[in-house]
Amino acid sequence: PVKRVEAALKLVQGKIRYVAIQMGASGLVPADAAATWESRYGDCKDTAHLLAVMLREAGIKAGVATLAVRGDGQVVDNVPSPWGTHAIAVATIDGTDHWLDTTATNLGWNVLPRDDRDRGQIRVLADALLDRRVQDLLDGVRSAEPAQPQRVVSR
C-alpha cells in the first residue's frame, strides 16, 4: 500500500498544476475529480480530493482533511472551521494515518510542511467511484507505476 500511495501522490503532484479560483462554491467545495484531472489544474482541496478518490479506488482508506489556520479568530483555536484554510489528503495504512499535502512537491511523500503540522482538522471520508476507463490508472497505482487516466468520476 505504501508504494501505491507514493505513486498516486507523485502522479497528482506531477500532473496537476496548483491554481486557486475562489469564486462561488469553488472556494469551499472541491471540484469533481474528473474535472480536476481533465483540466490538469486545481487548488489544494481539488487535488486532495482527486488523490483521495484514486486511493480509495486502489483499495486504500482515504479522505480529505481541512486544516484550521492559526490565529484565525475562532473561539477555540483547537476547533477548526469546517471550511478550513487548507486541504490535504489522509490515507490510512495498517491503522496508521498518513497526511499527504498534494501541494508540497519538494518533500517526501510522508512529510508534512511545517505550516500543516499541529493544526486542528476536520476529516471527510466520502464514497467515490472511478469510471471503468481509468483501469490503466488504477493498475498503475496498484503496481506503483502510474499510467495516464482518461476520465475520473466521483459521486
Order of strands, main sheet, comes to 5-4-3-6
| Percent in helix | 25-40%
Distance between the termini: 24 Å
Oligomer: single chain
Q: What is the strand tally?
A: 6
* Strand residues, percent: 15-25%
Residue stretches low in confidence (pLDDT < 50, at least 5 long) are 127-138, 140-155
- Rounded to an integer in angstroms, the radius of gyration calculated over CA atoms is 15 Å
Question: Which overall shape is indicated by the principal axes computed on the Cα atoms?
Answer: globular
Order of helices and strands: HEHEHEEEEH
Global mean pLDDT: 75
What's the number of helices?
4
Largest sheet: 4 strands, antiparallel
The computed structural class is alpha+beta
Description:
- This protein is α+β, with helices and mostly antiparallel strands and 155 residues long.
- The protein is built from 4 helices and 6 strands.
- The strands form 2 sheets. It has a 4-stranded antiparallel β-sheet with strand order 5-4-3-6.
- Residues 127-138 and 140-155 have low confidence and may be disordered.
